[in-house]
Specification:
Layout (H helix, E strand, L loop, with lengths): L4 E6 L3 H11 L5 E6 L2 H10 L4 E4 L8 H11 L7 E5 L4 H9 L4 E4 L4 H12 L5
Helix pairs in contact: 2-3
């Protein structure tokens, strides 16, 4: 049996965190951690290594772009693939995120099949 792939979901909305977890847990061998905002996200990113991070951009306090920037600067996850899951879809924001090494972008409201395909491709589990 393959080792579980670890995914960190960062979103300040509990309903979205739970929805994303439910969708991801339908994939084989995926272990999900949840962070409700920037402080918990940075604490987890400093202390654990993930195979993928799903990151919202709109959060109180420090936004997702700053969280991503900090993860890229000084955590064990600086090379971890990051998928933005956000209602913000303008070209400027996408370019900023791309410059910080974002792997993909999924618009909210999420399309379950598109999210599963994106996550499976980033985790290398497509077709499993």
């Amino acid at each position: 049996m393959p080792a579980a792939r670890r995914v960190l979901i960062v979103d300040d909305e509990e309903s979205m965190r739970l929805l994303l977890r439910r969708v991801l847990e339908s994939l084989p061998a995926v272990e999900v951690s949840l962070a409700d905002g920037h402080a918990e996200a940075l604490r987890l990113a400093e202390s654990q290594t993930y195979d993928l991070i799903l990151l919202d951009l709109l959060m109180p306090g420090i936004d997702g772009i700053e969280v991503l920037s900090r993860i890229r600067r000084s955590t064990p996850n600086k090379a971890t693939p990051v998928v933005i899951v956000s209602v913000i879809t303008d070209q400027h924001t996408r370019i900023v995120c791309q410059s910080l090494g974002v792997s993909d972008y999924v618009a909210k409201p999420i399309d379950r099949n598109a999210l599963l395909a994106t996550v499976a491709a980033r985790l290398g589990t497509a077709g499993n």
